[in-house]
Amino acid sequence: MTRRTFQRAGEAERRQDLISATLDSISDHGLEGATVRDIAARAGVTGGLIRHYFTGKDQMVQAAYREMLATMTKTAVDAMTAAGEDAHQRLHRFIVANVSPPVADPKALSLWAAFIGRVRSDEELARIHRENYLLFLNILEGLVASLLASHGRTASPSECRHLAIAINGLIDGLWLENSLASDLFDEGRLPQIALDAVEALLGGIALRPAADKH
């Protein structure tokens, strides 16, 4: 169990440390087993100090879910941004980042499994989930629209949304595959499968040089 030291950290940093401790506890013990006491011990603080930042465990869980989703999305967006302005490379890198570590890994899967079981019964978790899902779709829609435009195709918002939903579903499935059983696949196999499938969905528009497809 990792213990953190608060000492003279600022307010925002202390709150972030508590969120990280909450995620670690949920990953190890699930939502029910992740107690305020365990989270406090991991963070190296008292339960009383936790109440300075959160009203209770439910609020800590909500903040942790928001953090997990935001971190995963940010990782993919950072990879996309690093590609510059080329529409092919931006979509390429966004897709690959979403089906590769650290976005796809066993800890991410255990956290997702813990949270997703509560989404239907917790109104705030449901709101966080929906908000992130729509953000993700909007990013994909923009990437698809830019790519099609670079090939002289002006796609309607409905067509872009249709393609974004399909690509998101593909990403979700391969993310699950890589998180559950990455040892069963050759390095790079799942990103290649993802890119092959997205290129087919886009009517054969290549997202990488032909030499990279083998």
From TrEMBL:
Q: Recite the lineage of the species.
A: Bacteria, Pseudomonadati, Pseudomonadota, Alphaproteobacteria, Hyphomicrobiales
Mind listing where the DNA-binding region sits, in residue ranges? Answer: 35-54
Q: Which Pfam families match?
A: TetR_C_6, TetR_N
- The UniProt record lists the HTH tetR-type domain at 12-72
InterPro entries, sorted: BetI_C, DNA-bd_HTH_TetR-type_CS, Homeodomain-like_sf, HTH-type_TetR-like_transc_reg, HTH_TetR, Tet_transcr_reg_TetR-rel_C_sf
**Presence of keyword DNA-binding:** yes
Q: Does the keyword Protease apply?
A: no
Per its record, how is this protein called by name?
TetR family transcriptional regulator
Q: Which domain of life is it from?
A: Bacteria
Organism whose genome encodes this protein: Rhizobium glycinendophyticum
Identify the SUPFAM superfamilies for this entry: Homeodomain-like, Tetracyclin repressor-like, C-terminal domain
Q: Which PROSITE patterns match?
A: HTH_TETR_1, HTH_TETR_2
Could you tell me the keywords of this UniProt record? DNA-binding, Repressor, Transcription, Transcription regulation
One example GO MF annotation: transcription cis-regulatory region binding
Q: Where are the transmembrane segments?
A: none
